[in-house]
C-alpha cells in the first residue's frame, strides 16, 4: 500500500510514469533500508516541487556520448531519480564495453538517497559510484554561512552469493532531511551537527537551519573537502550549477525557482582488471577478514551495508514505520 500511495501521489502531482516509478523506487529503497530521511516522507516534497514547476514532471532526456568511456545526460530538470537511474544504467553499459563508464548528469534535481543508484550498479555486476551536488545548506570548515550542499557520496560493490557492499553517506554531519524528520517526530537532534541561522549550535530541530561538515568542529575540513570534490564531479564537470548558486528547494520567502544540479555516475567492470573470479575471491577474503576482526568490548564489526540489510529484512517482515506528517499526506491514517 505504501508504495502504491507514493506512486499515485507523484502521478497526481504531474510526474510522467517513468519519473514517478523511478522516484518511488528510490524512496522505497531508502525506507526499506532505514534511511527514513530520504524515504517515502519525501513524497510530499517532490509533489509540491512538481506542482510549483520547480521540477519538470515530463522531462525529455538527451544523451550525448563524448568518448569511448564517457557520456553526458541532460535531465531537462526532471526528477533526479529517473535521471540518476538512467545515468547509472548507461555507465554500466559503457563499462561493459570499455572497462570503465563515466556519465555526468546535467540540469537535474534532488535525487534522494545516493545509495539507490550505486546499488543498481552493483546489482548489475559493477563497482559503482554515485554523487550529487545540492543547494547550499552546509557551512565550510570554520565558516559562518551556508556554502556546500549535503553532497552525498555512495559506492557499492558486488559480492558473490551475497548482498553488495554498500556505502551511502552525506558529506555534512547529517542530511538536512534528518532535521525535517526530527521536527515531525518532535525529537532532539544530536550535538554539534546543526546550528541556528546565527551560526550558534543547537539541538532543537525547529531552530536548526544550518548543517556542519562531516568531521565536526576539529576535523570538518575533511567533510568540506569531500563536499567540494562532489561539487566538482557533479556540477562543474557536467555544466550544472555549483551549490552556492543553486536556488533553494525550500525557499524561506518568494516563489521557488527552477532547480539545476548535477550527478555523477561511475561504473567499473572487475572483469577488465583482476578478472571476475579473482575479484570474487579477493572480495570474499577481504570481507571475511573485516567481519572477523575483533571489536572493542565485544562489539560486532560490520561492513558497510550490513546494518542496512538487516534493517531491510526486519522491515520486510514487520513493516515500514512512517512519520505522522507523511502518514497524513499519503492518507494512511
UniProtKB/TrEMBL annotation:
The keyword Oxidoreductase applies. InterPro entries: Mal/L-sulf/L-lact_DH-like_ah (IPR043144), Mal/L-sulf/L-lact_DH-like_NADP (IPR043143), Mal/L-sulfo/L-lacto_DH-like_sf (IPR036111), Malate/L-lactate_DH-like (IPR003767). Keywords: Oxidoreductase. SUPFAM superfamilies: L-sulfolactate dehydrogenase-like (SSF89733). The keyword Oxidoreductase applies. It holds the Pfam family Ldh_2. Belongs to the LDH2/MDH2 oxidoreductase family. This is Ldh family oxidoreductase.
Amino acid at each position: 500500500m505504501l508504495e502504491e500511495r507514493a506512486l499515485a501521489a507523484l502521478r497526481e502531482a504531474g510526474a510522467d510514469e517513468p519519473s514517478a516509478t523511478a522516484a518511488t523506487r528510490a524512496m522505497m529503497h531508502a525506507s526499506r533500508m532505514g534511511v527514513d530521511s530520504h524515504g517515502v516522507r519525501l513524497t510530499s516534497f517532490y509533489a509540491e516541487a512538481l506542482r510549483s514547476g520547480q521540477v519538470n514532471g515530463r522531462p525529455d532526456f538527451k544523451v550525448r556520448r563524448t568518448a569511448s568511456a564517457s557520456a553526458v545526460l541532460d535531465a531537462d530538470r526532471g526528477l533526479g531519480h529517473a535521471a540518476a537511474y538512467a545515468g547509472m544504467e548507461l555507465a554500466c553499459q559503457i563499462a561493459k564495453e570499455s572497462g570503465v563508464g563515466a556519465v555526468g548528469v546535467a540540469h537535474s534535481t534532488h535525487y534522494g538517497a545516493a545509495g539507490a543508484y550505486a546499488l543498481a550498479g552493483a546489482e548489475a555486476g559493477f563497482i559503482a559510484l554515485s554523487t550529487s551536488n545540492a543547494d547550499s545548506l552546509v557551512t565550510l570548515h570554520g565558516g559562518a554561512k551556508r556554502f556546500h550542499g549535503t553532497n552525498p557520496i555512495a559506492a557499492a560493490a558486488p559480492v558473490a552469493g551475497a548482498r553488495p557492499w554498500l556505502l551511502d553517506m552525506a558529506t555534512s554531519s547529517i542530511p538536512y532531511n534528518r532535521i525535517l524528520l526530527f521536527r515531525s517526530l518532535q525529537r532532539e537532534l544530536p550535538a554539534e551537527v546543526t546550528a541556528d541561522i546565527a551560526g550558534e549550535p543547537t539541538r532543537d530541530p525547529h531552530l536548526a537551519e544550518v548543517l556542519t561538515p562531516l568531521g565536526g568542529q576539529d576535523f570538518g575540513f575533511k567533510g568540506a573537502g569531500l563536499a567540494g570534490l562532489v561539487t566538482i564531479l557533479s556540477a562543474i564537470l557536467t555544466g550544472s550549477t555549483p551549490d552556492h548558486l543553486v536556488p533553494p528547494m525550500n525557499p524561506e520567502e518568494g516563489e521557488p525557482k527552477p532547480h539545476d544540479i548535477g550527478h555523477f555516475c561511475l561504473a567499473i567492470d572487475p572483469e577488465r582488471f583482476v578478472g571476475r573470479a579473482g575479484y570474487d575471491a579477493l572480495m570474499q577474503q577481504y570481507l571475511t577478514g573485516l567481519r572477523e576482526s575483533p571489536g572493542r568490548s565485544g562489539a560486532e564489526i560490520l561492513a558497510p551495508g550490513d546494518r542496512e540489510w538487516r534493517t531491510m529484512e526486519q522491515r520486510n517482515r514487520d513493516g515500514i514505520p512512517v512519520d505522522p506528517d507523511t502518514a497524513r499526506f499519503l492518507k494512511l491514517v
